[in-house]
Amino acid sequence: MTASPELSVVVPVFNERDNVPPLVQEIVAALRGVVPFEIVYVDDHSRDDTLAVLQGLKAQVPELRVLHHVSQSGQSTAIRTGVKAARGTWIATLDGDGQNDPADIPRLIAKRGEQPGEVKLFAGWRVNRQDTGSKRWASKWANKIRARMLRDDTPDTGCGIKLFERAAFLDLPYFDHMHRYLPALMQRAGWKTVSVPVNHRARTTGVSKYNNLNRALVGIRDLRGVAWLITRSKRTAVEEL
């Protein structure tokens, strides 16, 4: 295991046993020699043998750490579990289904080096999505509604690949599905965010854990809640005397 990683790659998974080995190897290939890193997989109480596959990989990949939820808690909780356990000052997240490309992580890191320190989130932007037509259509309208309500100037908040400062993330209000609203929440906290075009790949194995109806029903409630949080936010500069 890396002694003091600069970057922690957090990957939440639920029933993704066939996607785990190739994605881990891609992360290693993208980051070894680029930045000191660790990989933090969070198994959200999978019903298949995802956890066993992860445990088997630990002997081969010294950067890999494995956390396990004793009960299924959802993607946002899994991400937060990984971030809390992470030792890096910056976090990169990836979806566990293999549709995000780990080769984009060094690009996000390079983009960070071009931006001022007040930018705390670099959000992936899937400019060429490889999803079904119905999912692309639903996402397009969801993004339009969200942008109108939250004014977060972010074209794609649903992209799983993101780079953000650990401390800034842990200072955000936590709630289920918060991972879909990170740009708005970061901006609410006074930080800036940048969207970066990234690669997107078709799922080759496993099945999606969401459907359009469930996303829509939950999304309406969450949008109202985040909009309320934004209206109730207060920020001020602080002086130490």
Automatic annotation (TrEMBL):
Question: What Gene Ontology molecular-function terms does this entry list?
Answer: glycosyltransferase activity
| Matches recorded under Gene3D superfamilies | Spore Coat Polysaccharide Biosynthesis Protein SpsA, Chain A
Give the top-rank taxon of the lineage listed in the UniProt record for this protein: Bacteria
Keyword Lipoprotein in annotation: no
Residues in domain Glycosyltransferase 2-like? 8-169
| Protein known as | Glycosyltransferase family 2 protein
Which species does this protein come from? Lysobacter yangpyeongensis
Q: What is the lineage of its organism?
A: Bacteria, Pseudomonadati, Pseudomonadota, Gammaproteobacteria, Lysobacterales
Q: What is its EC number?
A: 2.4.-.-
Q: Indicate whether Transferase appears among the record's keywords.
A: yes
- Spans traversing the lipid bilayer: none
Check the record and name the InterPro entries matching this protein. Answer: Glyco_trans_2-like, Glycosyltransferase_2, Nucleotide-diphossugar_trans
